[in-house]
Write a structure and sequence with these properties.
The chain is an alpha+beta fold and about 375 residues long. It folds into two domains: about 170 residues, 3-Layer(aba) Sandwich (Aminopeptidase); about 150 residues, 3-Layer(aba) Sandwich (Aminopeptidase), CATH 3.40.630. About 40% of the residues lie in helices and about 25% in strands. The strands form two sheets. The protein has an eleven-stranded mixed beta sheet with strand order 2-5-6-8-15-9-14-13-12-11-10. A four-stranded antiparallel beta sheet has the order 1-3-4-7. Helix 4 runs parallel beside helix 5 and helix 8 packs across helix 9. The longest helix is centred in the middle third of the chain and has 18 residues.
Length: about 375
């Protein structure tokens, strides 16, 4: 049995009260990802917590009064049978509102990963967060120390899946070293794109960035407009068309700015923004999150690629260790990255009549037969 004291966090006020020890725990963890922290996830709960009938069911693990583990989670009903599903905060939104939070997961103080994973597994088997029918923990980094420990602690019935990849750049000490880490075709693409920009714009690209709090609102609207324009070519309104998504980032950007973690930048030509990028600087790493660009540019002017090239160069100059594109192996990310990190998902269904009905409803097997068999089995055990 785990020696940790595990308690249920079921109200917003309890979650808010954890902000300071949560931040301290994040800094002492082996992951220290911004999307596992209170800035991102408390704001997520404020905006998304009231949607889909969610109930807060986070788990806090203490040792001698010190927070050493945290599972920021909630549950809500899904599917035609209203299955009670447990998910990490930052995940499980309807597609049109999803934030695509990455590297979320179980948080543990360095050295206590096994104890925290064990405590989590014991809580699942106990009655602390019942009732639940299934648990779906997604967007976890496969490189996190706690991930395989958590998979084992959740039991043999747990499904471990690789669900995609997150391209990133391991930043060297110089720009030339970065270029040397890429195949010759990609180096040529970068140099050709920079030359095409200079020829069109009349000079080299220069990143501008939000430097004052009063610039935030207009910069967010600029990013939203450019993002929407980028997605119009495929008949989509873009992520910021969701009022929930927009409100979440309005709140979160402000807190990130005060924490010195927001990097909202853009490229201008003749005073007009043509590309924008929203990144977060955390734990000496850059996490690129969202972007937008104008479409009515000359064919060879790759504004979306150029803004990342500029950001990577500035990240090298600032001494950051990584430039991470987060999830999605889209073409431009793979052209600039020199590594890919697998993302994983852990899921498990609890043995119950409801979960069996859910599975059969997905496979088309007769529900009446299952109910009859289940009733007979239960009567036979009496």
């Amino acid at each position: 049995m785990s020696s940790l004291r595990t308690s249920l966090i079921s109200t917003s006020s309890e979650l808010e009260a954890l902000r300071e020890p949560w931040g301290e725990l994040l800094a002492k963890s082996a992951t220290n990802e911004v999307m596992q922290g209170p800035i991102w996830l408390i704001n997520w709960w404020r905006v998304y917590g009231k949607e889909q009938g969610r109930e807060l069911c986070s788990l806090a693990m203490h040792l001698d009064g010190r927070l050493v583990g945290l599972a920021p989670m909630c549950k809500h009903r899904v599917g035609p049978l209203s299955m009670q599903r447990i998910e990490f905060l930052g995940s499980g939104e309807d597609e049109e509102h999803e934030t695509c939070s990455e590297y979320i997961g179980l948080l543990a103080e360095r050295g206590y990963e096994q104890a925290v994973a064990n405590a989590f597994g014991e809580a699942l088997e106990g009655d602390l967060i019942t009732p639940w029918d299934e648990i779906d923990l997604t967007a976890m980094s496969s490189e996190a120390v706690i991930s395989p420990l958590l998979a084992r602690a959740m039991g043999k019935a747990t499904l471990y899946e690789v669900i995609g990849g997150a391209p990133f750049v391991t930043l060297p000490s110089s720009w030339d070293d970065y270029l040397a880490s890429l195949p010759s075709s990609r180096r040529y693409l970068i140099r050709r794109s920079l030359k095409a920009w200079e020829k069109w714009a009349g000079g080299p690209p220069v990143l501008k960035r939000v430097e004052r709090e009063e610039e935030l609102e207009s910069a967010l609207e600029m990013l939203s407009a450019l993002h929407e324009e980028r997605w119009q070519e495929v008949g989509h309104g873009g992520a910021f068309a969701s009022p929930l998504f927009h409100e979440f980032h309005r709140k979160t950007m402000r807190e990130l700015f005060h924490a010195g973690a927001l990097w909202l930048n853009w490229l201008e030509v003749e005073g007009e923004p043509v590309a924008a990028s929203y990144s977060i600087i955390w734990n000496n790493q850059v996490r690129f999150y969202q972007s937008g660009r104008k479409l009515d540019l000359p064919k060879k002017v790759r504004a979306g690629l150029v803004i990342h090239v500029c950001a990577i160069r500035e990240s090298i100059e600032a001494g950051y260790s990584h430039y991470d594109f987060l999830a999605g192996t889209t073409r431009y990310k793979m052209q600039l990255a020199n590594n890919v990190r697998p993302l994983m998902r852990l899921s498990r269904s609890r043995p119950s009549l409801r979960s069996k009905l859910q599975k059969l409803s997905m496979t088309g097997v007769g529900l009446g037969k299952l109910v009859r068999n289940e009733v007979r089995n239960r009567l036979a055990k009496r």
